[in-house]
Structure formats: C-alpha cells, structure tokens
Amino acid sequence: MNKNVVGLLAILLAAGLAAASPVNHYRMGVSHRFEPVAGEEVNCVSFANGFTIDTRAGEPELPSGLATQATSGGVAYYIIQFEGPIRRKWVGELERNGINVFGYLPNYAMLGRLSEGQRDLARSLPGVRWVGLFQPAYKLQRAVLDAGGFREIVIQLMPGETGAAVEELIKTSGGTVVEAVSTSFATTVRAGIAASHIPDVARLPEVLWIEEWVAPEVCNNQCQWVTQTGWQSSPQPDTALSVRTSWLRGVRGRRLILSTTDTGLNLGHD
C-alpha cells in the first residue's frame, strides 16, 4: 500500500476516535465530601456588643431594663441554637412544624417568632440544642449600650414587621422620627431620642437591632487610580489621568466582558 495512503488512513482513524470520544476539559480527580464537626464553640452564642450566652448554663446576667420574660400564651422572638453546623434537614423539620427561622447568630443559631407551644416543640426537635429569648440587651450596638445624652439612632425591624409602634414610642418619649425606609433588605427607622429611652425601644419585640446613625461618607473614591497605577502617599484628584495608566493605554472597558469562573465545586455543599 502506498505510504501516503497509509498516512492518510492513520489521520482519519485518529480523527474518528476523537470525534467518538468527547474531550472532558474538567478532570478534577476523585471528589470528596467533608462534614464539619462542632467543637467547644457549640456551647456559645455571641453578639457584636460583647454579650455571650453559654448555652450549657443559660442566659447571662443582663443589665436592668434590658431583660424580659416570656409572657404566658404570648408570642416572642427566640434564639434557636443547633447542635453544630446547621443542616437543611433540621431547618426543614422546624418549617414542617410551622416554625420559620431567619438570620444567623454565631455559633449555629437562628432567630424565629414562636408561640409558647412552638418554643416547647422546637426544644424537642432533632438537631436543636437550646432555645432562649432574644433579649433586648442583644439588640444594642456597644456605643448605644453605653450612651448618654441625646442620640441619633437607626432601628432595624424584624422581617415583616412595621415601624408603627416604634415611631409612636419615639414620639411619646420626646424624640423625633427623621425617616422610615422599607427596602427588600429591611425596614429601618432613623430617629433622634434621649439615650435613657433607648432601652424602651429595644424592649419592643419587633426591634432587631439599634445602632448610632452615622452620616454616609464616600470611602472608595481613591480605589480607581490605585487599582490602575498603584498606591501613592497623597490622595489624587478624581479626574487625574496621570494616575490612571490603564485608561491612558486605551483600556477603558469598552467591548470587554469580565467574568470569574471556578472549578472543582462540590454541588452538595451549601
């Protein structure tokens, strides 16, 4: 057989095999599942203002006026702590029993609005380690907790709650409601009020968090030129092209598509 014919047959055979076996560009090797195990941190629920609950012992000693008791037959917001990293099946079991939870508190805890019967039921469900009241003390930023005088604050409400009672309390306490804003993220009320009345606001069940209001400031207007050129010790004008070297080279973002990709993701991991 002619050598040229043999060579052509070899090329055709290789092409046929390649077409019959699609190339897999993602050779990630053996996949593994990792299931985290809880350690000593499971004994603790902590808050940004420094309060900590040792769930083996129950609630800590709280300041006067910043602790409440559950009312018989009433509904309140509770912390539900789980036995470890929160599993979907544990949350699903709560939901099947009409208990909807939201948010996250370290370690392994969520919040829920529960009746007295739901509280007792939750304590008996699989995966639940501890259930306790979401106390007013846990709702206050540290700066507000220690504040005096007249303060401008922002109050974030629990999901689905309205600010009517909050606004009424502020007005009857001699304070001023500056604005109330509802977004897809949360409903907030901005107000001026004497610091002595802030615990009264925190005791309202519909309040999730209270912090000092701070005037918004532009804080990343220098990042553009730093990213393009590198850091210099003095701030640069917003319009200075001399420190925007990418733009000077014609890279202005036109006709470009930027994206981020990753491989090796475990689709079974939350």
Give a description of the structure.
- This protein is α+β, with helices and mostly antiparallel strands and 270 residues long.
- A 4-stranded antiparallel beta sheet has the order 4-5-3-6, covered by helices on one side. Strands 8-9-7-10 form a 4-stranded antiparallel beta sheet.
- The protein contains 8 helices and 10 strands.
- It has helices at 3-20, 88-96, 116-124, 142-145, 164-172, 198-202, 223-229, 245-248; strands at residues 44-46, 52-54, 75-82, 101-105, 109-115, 128-133, 150-157, 176-182, 187-194, 207-212.
- It is flat, with a radius of gyration of 29 Å.
- It starts with a helix and ends in a 22-residue tail after the last helix.
- 24% of the residues lie in helices and 23% in strands.
- Strand 4 (101-105) and strand 5 form a beta hairpin.
Any chance you could write out the topology, listing elements then pairs?
Blueprint: H1 3-20, E1 44-46, E2 52-54, E3 75-82, H2 88-96, E4 101-105, E5 109-115, H3 116-124, E6 128-133, H4 142-145, E7 150-157, H5 164-172, E8 176-182, E9 187-194, H6 198-202, E10 207-212, H7 223-229, H8 245-248
Antiparallel strand pairs: 1-2, 3-5, 3-6, 4-5, 7-9, 7-10, 8-9
Order of helices and strands: HEEEHEEHEHEHEEHEHH
User: How much is the average pLDDT?
Assistant: 88
Number of H- or I-type helical stretches:
8
Largest sheet entry: 4 strands, antiparallel
Give the overall shape, derived from the CA principal axes.
flat
Class by alpha and beta content: alpha+beta
- Ends distance: 62 Å
